[in-house]
Amino acid sequence: MKNILTAPWMVEMIRTVTNMYDHGWDERNGGNVSLLLEESQVNDYVDGAVLREIPTGFSCPELDGKYFLVTGTGKYFKNVQYAPEINLGLVRLTDGGETAQLLWGFADGGEFTSAFPAHMMPRQHAARLKIDLQNRVVMHCHPANLLAMTYVHMLDEKQFTRTLWQMCTECIVVFPDGVNVLPWMLCGTNEIGEATAEKMRTARLVVWAQHGIYGAGKDLDETFGLIETAEKAAEIYMKIAHLPLVNTITDDQMHQLEAHFGVKAREGYLS
Ligand code: 2HA
Ligand code: ZN
């Protein structure tokens, strides 16, 4: 069997959460990430022996048998690179998703992030709708400028999205579906998980007002890049929001971007 710490997906996960920490998005135990893996990707690295069984607190028959590499509850992203086997875990869902079989990690007796149900719900929706589970990554973090923006910008999704699109030329190309926004809600509950999953049906980015952001994407790089781009736009907004606005990116220019890059902006968001 090969050393699991050399698996490409493990290396990528450790680099990504380290990078998230270095960007200041994941203070203390803030943030959580899960990565959906195929049996063929994990086979060479684990023998299938179940170390422990952990109840998930939810049911999702559509995801039975799926493998996830996931960050631990209460764990600090800062520490993942130094002790991956304590701060990360590899699980396989069983019993209709109600049980997670721990195959590697959480070596101090820990468990996956309390947001695990919130990470599973969008995938469950997708599986139920028979949409390919192409969003292998769900990522949550607390980027300062997006958070700041939710204190001073209206939370209307169309207006919020349009403001972000106007802040950097690339935004509409990177997230043409825009960002959806949830008002402040109690985190760590099934309610916010359900609400986030519902919002993820129409956009891969969901802002949690006064808290942070959720992103979903096909791999770790893409998902990180989505959040990075939205956060850059929010940074520009926070630099200029208190200044007189002289120039902007017009809707006509947005249409040029759509045509040139072959993307379609969210229906009704451009005039
Ligand atoms: O996982 O960020 O919102 C810690 C959090 C919960
Ligand atoms: Zn959070």
Task: Explain the layout of strands and helices.
Layout: H1 8-22, E1 32-37, H2 39-42, E2 52-55, E3 67-71, H3 77-80, H4 84-87, E4 88-94, E5 99-105, H5 116-128, E6 137-141, H6 144-152, H7 157-167, H8 171-174, E7 179-182, H9 190-199, E8 205-208, E9 212-217, H10 220-240, H11 251-261
Parallel strand pairs: 7-8
Antiparallel strand pairs: 1-3, 1-6, 2-5, 3-4, 4-5, 6-9, 8-9
Helix pairs in contact: 5-9, 6-10, 7-10
Q: What does this protein structure show overall?
A:
This protein is α+β, with helices and mostly antiparallel strands and 271 residues long. 39% of the residues lie in helices and 18% in strands. It has 11 helices and 9 strands. It has helices spanning 8-22, 39-42, 77-80, 84-87, 116-128, 144-152, 157-167, 171-174, 190-199, 220-240, 251-261; strands spanning 32-37, 52-55, 67-71, 88-94, 99-105, 137-141, 179-182, 205-208, 212-217. The chain has a 9-stranded mixed sheet, sandwiched between helices. Strand 4 (88-94) and strand 5 form a beta hairpin. The structure holds Dihydroxyacetone (2HA) and zinc ion. The site of zinc ion has 6 residues, from loops.
